[in-house]
What does this fold into?
Amino acid sequence: MSHDFLLALIGGVLIGLAANLMLVFNGHVTGISGILNKTLSLKNTLNSKNFKDLKHEKLWPLLFILGLFLGGVLIFYPNSLKTETYSMPLLRICIAGLLVGFGTTLGNGCTSGHGVCGLSRFSKRSLAATLCFMLAGILTVAIFGGVK
Amino acid sequence: MIKSFITLLSGFIFALGLGISGMIYPQKVISFLDLFGNWDPSLAFVMIGAIGVHLIGYKFISKKSKSILGSDFKVPSNKNPIDKKLIIGSSLFGIGWGLGGFCPGPALVSAVGLSQETLFFILFMIIGSFITKLPIFTKSLNT
It folds into this structure.
């Protein structure tokens, strides 16, 4: 158990370092839902006439996600970290995904954008958002059940 | 080029953080939210660690007008109001988070594991995001 606390803290420090790199060097906030949405709308940018200026300002969300995938490869493939199987009905997973996508886009942020970046700069909006998703998450698990 | 490398590196380190911390395990996240059941509080330390370190980043840029590599800061203003969209959106996100145990970052990192469940989660997350941008929602909630 205390092992888990230490890993959580180390993981959190790494997330903070990654967010610092992005902010201090490139001036961007590391909210993953925002980054995903920017990547999804990148298609419009690439289709436009000014295809030539494929600058970092446009491509960074895609690059960041590539970085996430590269990290994922290190986590999943050498089996250096144990990966658990996701055991719940597919319908529940699809509804969960739909709500996460809808909610984070409507609320302009997720655990990283509001919970880490927003709270680190003392944003009242992000504090309100974090309280909402924490409370809603706790209530949902209380109603639909946790892990047996 | 250096900016692109930093971005790639940042994504990579971010993913390792999510992996090492345990955020990529849906069961663990659900146990973290299971305050009234078999509560596992360990993931609270992810937030403590991340905010503790990221505070320093904001402190550092507070005296600067440009980033180290010369970009403007694209940081959302703290003065934006708390509106209906924020409250409804964040609450719906919380329900999805509690149901599935995934938020966007861990879901994307886990995509490379190629499990059917994770890929379905991501597909529906993207569909949900597109639905939000439909005119009916953008109009009715823009108050």
About this structure: Residues 2-21 of chain B form the longest helix (20 residues).
